[in-house]
Amino acid sequence: MPVEGGSSSGSASAARHPKQKRKAHSLSIRRTNSTEDRPQGVQRGDMLEGQDSKLPLPLRNNLLELFGQIEREFENLYIENIELRREIDSLNERLTGDGQTIEGGDPTKGALKTKASHSTSQLSQKLKTTYKASTSKIVSSFKATAGSRALCQLLKEYVGHRDGIWDLSVTRTQPVVLGTASADHSALLWSIETGKCLLRYAGHAGSVNSIKFHPTEQMAITASGDQTAHIWRYMVQLPAPQPPPDVSAPCDDDQDSSDREEGEVDVEGPCEVPTVRVATATLKSHQGVVIAADWLVGGRQVVTASWDRAANLYEVETSELVHTLTGHDQELTHCCTHPTQRLVVTSSRDTTFRLWDFRDPSIHSVNVFQGHTDTVTSAVFTVGDNVVSGSDDRTVKVWDLKNMRSPIATIRTDSAVNRISVSANQRIIALPHDNRQVRLFDMSGVRLARLPRSNRMGHRRMVCCTAWNEENQSCNLFTCGFDRQAIGWNINIPALLQEK
């Protein structure tokens, strides 16, 4: 999480849990017919680890982990099988106690015999269905691990910040550029096609924690650890496009580089670029770190979220504070506005997110949602009537605005989820994780893909945020992380949906 001082190298460990190293699981599938051939007290995994192997150690560890998962799946199936067989035996015992048998018996009790056979048949069918579903689940997991036809092409790497990047956003107007907010006290604008830095905003005295662009004008709002939010104008000229690099890899690439996990991009910063140092408007009403900001529909008002447990609503033209949104018990982590309605959602470390309704000028209603068990790191609107929330409890939940009593889908992951984003056209959720992964899901909670993370591409440290760009026919996803770089990906949506 962004901090006030702006130095991310020391703050990441204080704001985040220590990164857990991946542990290699030994293969321990038990085989009763070969136990006598094994030395006493020696497990199968120990025997495998003592053998010479030509496989790279990370790949070998991944295989051992996968086989361990397979073993647990079959153990669950075995337990279910035993329980179902017990039910069948219990039913047969009850039938026998009543003077009924499955084979032979009194012909006058044919109806009872038929009923018993029908019950037994139902249990057998249930057993088959359970096996079929579990087996399909195992096969599906193999399919996802082996690779997908959906391709994720590396578009460009945007390198130039001197510290971790907390947030990024894409302009909604022409020219389309990428904006990044960093703990190095600056925000940079980039050419998406060439990766060239076009402009630097250097008006903040603390970490820049968020950046969002005006819906119709060349303006941006940035939130900072200096307890302010700045509104500033920009003018950029795009350079001539260059041929795209021919670098592609299948999604769900499991190749990893453990020795680069703690590495950082060693750069001296971008070349000399135009710099904006004075804001058009400075919003100063908060008493703590301003962690996020966004524009309300129409762009005449903005909302800011702060560690002082409040969100503020301002008039853009006059910088006047219109409303202070209070009620959260702990620091806010994010805020987001609806693309077409005057709705605001704020998330907090108090495990809740709140929906603020400004559609009626005379009534400003608020609803509190308690669907998570840890910090809600972000909650965002979709183009439809949905809210998607992500949390440090390793879950992402999809909610229906018309009925927010319970989520309509829950996505469970293996790592804390940071600032999520949802594509407007295809409604695909991009999840950035603490463990450097970026996963894609649909709105029903079905996993579609995982972005490559190997020696050649991907983030080396925690991924903080994702943002979509669907202006053209191609669909681009941008990610940023604590390794000081942002990455652009070209997502093959037709292949992704076909794989689904």
Low-pLDDT residue spans: 6-45, 101-116, 135-150, 253-269
Structural class: alpha+beta
Distance between the termini: 33 Å
What is the averaged pLDDT score?
80
What overall form do the CA principal axes indicate? Answer: globular
**Residue share in β-strands:** 25-35%
Structure annotation, total helices: 5
Could you give the count of β-strands? 30
Helix content: 10-25%
Strand order of the largest sheet: 9-1-30-29-28
> What characterizes the major β-sheet?
5 strands, antiparallel
Rg, Cα atoms, Å? 27 Å
Concise structural overview:
The protein is an alpha+beta fold and 500 residues long.
Show the helix and strand layout.
Elements: H1 8-15, H2 44-49, H3 57-97, H4 110-146, E1 151-159, E2 165-170, E3 177-182, E4 187-191, E5 197-201, E6 208-213, E7 219-224, E8 229-233, E9 248-250, E10 275-276, E11 281-283, E12 290-295, E13 301-306, E14 311-315, E15 321-325, E16 332-337, E17 343-348, E18 353-360, E19 363-369, E20 376-381, E21 386-391, E22 395-400, E23 409-412, E24 421-422, E25 428-432, E26 438-442, E27 447-450, E28 463-469, E29 475-481, E30 485-491, H5 493-499
Parallel strand pairs: 5-10
Antiparallel strand pairs: 1-9, 1-30, 2-3, 3-4, 4-5, 6-7, 7-8, 8-11, 12-13, 13-14, 14-15, 16-17, 17-18, 18-19, 20-21, 21-22, 22-23, 24-25, 25-26, 26-27, 28-29, 29-30
Helix pairs in contact: 3-4
